[in-house]
Amino acid sequence: MPNKSPKVLVGTGYASLIIAFLVFGVLPIVQGHTAAQAQITQAQTEIRSRLEKKQQLESIQKLVASLKLDTSGYDRLVPNTPEFSPFLLSFGHEWVDVGLRERDLSVRSLPPMTLGRSEKRPIEIRGRGTYAQFHKFLERLESLDRLSSIGRLSIDADSSLNGIVDIQLTLFIYNTKPS
User: What is the per-residue DSSP string for 92-160?
Assistant: First the structure.
């Protein structure tokens, strides 16, 4: 048996070297690879989550920009005061400034209509002048401090073909409902 013991000893040595190589060489690499794969998967999940949140944020930012655009003129459209005589004064000044005659203008306020927390006040306007003057007046109407909207517009040409038109217009102005 003396011959077998060096072979067993060498075999045991080789086995020990192989086990040591596996434990100290291969196993850390396998564990490092597994840990790296787990970190990659976690990072990819985080990236997807952040991209989704970025898309949600961009969508919200677009909505906010749209709402700001939609409500940018709200104070001009629906002021806090139900008083509309300053609007009528500005309206009359614009009428005269474009060359229309004040005596050809008639304005009548109609009863207000409630719209939730605001009111809509119709103003019936009748006037006479040239179409060019009236067109200029409508353009200037948009620049008044208080916004208005046109509910009805009727333009009739004079039968004498002198360029004069009769205008019937219903304007709506708005305000917050008085408490």
Answer: HHHHHHTT--GGG-EEEEPPPEEETTEEEEEEEEEEEEEHHHHHHHHHHHTTSSS--EEEEEEEEE-TT
Please write the tens of the pLDDT for every residue from 121-158: 899 999 988 889 989 988 988 888 888 888 899 988 87
pTM of the model: 0.56
Alpha-carbon gap, residue 179 to 174, rounded angstroms: 15
Give the alpha-carbon dihedral of 81, 84, 89, 93, to 10 degrees.
100
Cα–Cα distance measured from residue 122 to residue 110, given in angstroms and rounded to the nearest whole number:
5
> Which of these CATH numbers, 3.40.50.970, 3.30.70.60, 2.60.40.10, 2.40.50.140, describes 77-176?
3.30.70.60
How many whole angstroms separate alpha carbon 14 and alpha carbon 167? 110
